[in-house]
Design goal:
Layout (H helix, E strand, L loop, with lengths): L3 H15 L41 H11 L4 H8 L4 H6 L6 E4 L3 E7 L3 E14 L5 E17 L2 E6 L4 E4 H7 E10 L5 E9 L5 H10 L10 E2 L7 E6 L2 E5 L6 H16 L8 E4 L2 E2 L27 E5 L2 E6 L2 E4 L10 E6 L4 E6 L5 E7 L3 E8 L6 E2 L6 E5 L3 E7 L5 E5 L12 E6 L5 E6 L2 E9 L5 E9 L7 E6 L5 E5 L6 E4 L6 E3 L11 E4 L3 E5 L4 E5 L9 E2 L9 E4 L2
Parallel strand pairs: 1-6, 11-12
Antiparallel strand pairs: 1-3, 2-3, 3-4, 4-5, 7-8, 7-9, 10-11, 12-13, 14-15, 14-37, 15-16, 17-18, 18-19, 19-20, 21-22, 22-23, 23-24, 25-26, 26-27, 27-28, 29-30, 30-31, 31-32, 33-34, 34-35, 35-36
Helix pairs in contact: 1-7, 2-3, 6-7
Length: about 575
């Protein structure tokens, strides 16, 4: 039998190979209410039945409201919601056709025929819950006609459209968001794929594992790698081990990659292991009986594993390093001091800057120990943003041209344009563009509105931004600044005095205003580290603990009191 040290050594050596190997691609999807698909039968955990059923002698309008609440419970193929329907409607209704999420539902009586009544149902759609639990934001209206009739003295719904409609509050009450983790195209970064899982399930593990086996959600699928064959299946826990079938074609590196995905997906749900994994009757990786988070620490996607990042600030055209409550100018290391209007810094000591006045600006990039080289010239540039591992630098020229610059071994930069597939009718200037820490997602501010897109990579090194969607429509027209937070959400600064700093969820499913306190709109710059959110308002640069719920006021950043500057968190 292998010792713990030899097992750990083997896992770690394989983990090194994991970052350099190429991956195969496969994909699938699974509805949130379906039982796990398995090759051999096992006793799948059951779901609790709905706790909402028709109240005796309920009035038609109240019956409809209770029905919509019951529609948020997918247990037993929506049996609770079906109990509100006539027998004919029960047989005809397809609740799985779609799951639309609205802000709230309003109803008006259209016709009252005594034994039958018709209602007009309306709401503002905020998104759709796709099969597999992926939330896709949307901005449109919802309207439908529903009819009720008396059956044995009780009102029941006799006519309704296909699909489920639930209110935002029911989504939050009945479902919980969790991250699945898949590797990016390079095989080096674990990328979160947020899913909403019905909270009434008896086994969260089964739900997450089954979803993991069926691959990334549709929106991000083209940007991720997925190793597992279509016949892969989870068959339950046997003798303490998570057991799978259909993995016989996987090589050792693919098996280790799957173990990493499984470990971190379960860890994000509070299931920390160690976990034993068996595939087709044998250990997933020969000689390795179990895996834990320490085995894959280098690829940890969890916020607490990110570690502290260096903090910089840009003030009066000069770049400063901020540490130990002191701001030190980068004089001597950045030759362009005094003329900088935008900057980004990586944790590896690379930096990118924009210099010059609007109408005549230059984009430069380089390293602190070598200086910067001119890359591009344009009338205007956005703030630059680094890809993961500094493999490229993006910047928007003249509000329209998204460019990616890559440094060669000789130190010269090669620049190419990045196509962006914007939604129909969106044709404004891009004032902010920021890549996520994995480089798979991008957030943009276009004419004061937040959009996010997915970055596709191609074998020739080219990139393309696809599947661009509007986020936070309630903030449309007021957004000035935006950046990614370590947990995958977005922090935005606005011109709205009622919501100067707002958190936007990674999937666009909701927004949460940060405490207003003493911060004054407009908020022209934002940034976020593991434990702190930074914002530049009308007066100064301020900070607040990232998870603070009981703090009402922002504080000036130590070392920058009385200085209005731009926060820069290196990554």
């Amino acid at each position: 039998m292998r010792t713990r040290n030899s097992r750990a050594s083997r896992v770690m050596s394989l983990a090194v190979a994991l970052t350099t190997s190429a991956l195969l691609t496969s994909c699938a999807s699974l509805p949130t209410d379906s039982a796990p698909q398995v090759i051999r039968k096992f006793d799948a955990p059951t779901q609790a039945i709905s706790d909402i059923t028709p109240a005796p002698d309920s009035d038609p309008d109240l019956l409809l409201r209770d029905f919509f609440a019951a529609s948020a419970v997918p247990a037993s193929n929506y049996e609770g919601a079906r109990s509100f329907l006539t027998e004919q409607a029960r047989q005809a209704w397809d609740p799985n056709a779609s799951t639309i999420v609205v802000d709230r539902i309003s109803m008006n009586t259209l016709a009252d025929g005594g034994a039958t009544q018709s209602f007009n149902v309306q709401g503002n759609v905020i998104g759709e819950l796709r099969p597999g639990g992926a939330f896709v934001p949307a901005r449109q209206g919802y309207e439908a006609t529903m009819e009720v009739e008396r059956v044995d003295g009780q009102w029941r719904i006799s006519s309704l459209p296909a699909g489920s409609v639930i209110e935002r509050t029911e989504l939050r009450n009945r479902y919980q968001p969790y991250n699945l983790y898949f590797y990016d195209r390079s095989g080096e970064e674990l990328v979160p794929d947020r899913r909403w899982v019905y909270a009434g399930r008896d086994s969260l593990e089964t739900a997450l594992i089954t979803l993991l086996l069926h691959g990334p959600s549709e929106r991000v699928r083209s940007a991720l790698k997925f190793d597992l064959p279509a016949e892969a299946a989870y068959t339950g826990i046997e003798d303490g081990a998570y057991t799978f079938t259909g993995l016989s074609t996987l090589g050792e590196e693919e098996r280790l990659r799957f173990a990493s995905q499984l470990v971190w997906t379960l860890a994000g749900a509070g299931i920390n292991g160690p976990i034993a994994i068996e595939a087709d009757g044998d250990p997933l990786v020969p000689g390795v009986e179990s895996f834990n988070r320490d085995d894959f620490a280098a690829s940890s996607p969890l916020v607490e594993s990110v570690g502290d990042s260096s903090f910089y600030t840009l003030a009066n055209g000069r770049l400063f390093s901020v540490a130990d409550e002191t701001a030190q100018p980068m004089d001597g290391r950045v030759a362009e001091q005094g003329n900088i209007v935008a900057a980004d810094v990586s944790n590896s000591g690379n930096y990118a800057i924009v210099t010059g006045a609007e109408g005549d600006q230059t984009f430069r990039a380089g390293a602190f120990d070598q200086g910067a080289k001119e890359v591009l010239q344009a009338d205007t540039f956005t703030r630059p943003t680094f890809e993961s591992n500094d493999s490229g630098i993006w910047v928007v020229a003249d509000g329209r041209r998204v460019t990616r610059s890559v440094r060669s071994a000789s130190g010269d930069f090669t620049t190419s344009e990045v196509p962006v597939d914007l939604p129909e009718g969106v044709d404004g200037s891009i004032s902010v563009l920021r890549l996520s820490s994995t480089g798979v997602r991008v957030v943009m501010v276009i004419e004061g509105t937040v959009y996010t897109g997915i970055v596709e990579q191609y074998g020739n090194g080219e990139r393309k931004v696809v599947n661009v969607l509007e986020y936070a429509p309630d903030l449309a027209g007021s957004v000035i600044s935006a950046d990614w937070q370590p947990d995958g959400s977005i922090v935005v600064g606005t011109s709205n005095p009622g919501s100067p700093v707002v958190r936007v969820e990674q999937d666009g499913s909701g927004t949460t205003g940060k405490p207003i306190g003493n911060i004054t709109a407009p908020v022209v710059a934002v940034a976020s580290g593991v434990g702190m959110v930074y914002a530049t308002d009308a007066n100064a640069i301020l900070q607040m603990p990232a998870g603070a719920n009981d703090v009402s006021n922002w504080r000036e950043v130590p070392g920058l009191q009385g200085v209005r500057s731009v926060p820069i968190v290196a990554r």
